[in-house]
Amino acid sequence: MLIFWRLLFGHLLADFTFQSNFINRWKRGSLWGMLAHCAMHPLCYLLLTWPFLRQPWIHLGSFSLSGWACIAVVFAVHFAEDQWRVFTIFRYNTPDNTLYFIWDQLIHYAIIFAVIPVGLHDSNAALIPEKWPVLGCLFVLVTHACTVLVYFIEKDLYGRLFPEVQEKYFTMGERLVLAMIFLLPGNLWPLLALGWLSLMRWLRARRVADLSWLSFSIGAAMAIVCGLTARVIYYA
Length: 236
Fold this sequence. Notes:
Strand order of the largest sheet: 1-2
């Protein structure tokens, strides 16, 4: 699982953190934009798995694939999947909704899981051999990934547009602070988390950020789940 968590962290970074609104629009209107977006993924993978790239990850009888080849396969499948998603949306008017977004992500995760090596070294057998890539995944989930998920849900229910930059980063900051509180040592972190959650609710009531109740609830729940998970992993 060592390679899996590093690849998953790289995927989340490339698909959410480093995918700006400009890149998202570009990939939907141009093949070059799609290539630029998909090229971010192998770049992140290479940086995160560099020490293991020359080792064989997949063994099929006498045939094997090195880390380099596996990343190339993931890149090719990612490009095909994203291009197919854009094609079906514009050609067949397939709804670009929450379910399609989740299905698209599950396919990407399945491909990553398919190329992880077995027996690379002893620690690879552990579920969480390293803490930092898993914590990195949680960081992306509570910030950029949660923003996109909330957008799709609210678009489906209310027809809302993607949040403005100010609202986007304000809500990301709220969720991140709440999640980070769970990593504080000692016994006061539950009270601090409750206090920050109450402040978030007060700010919403004061219309400091124009958040729907659904957006606030999903964001708070994501921050709490990711924060608790991070605490368990960090102090394990």
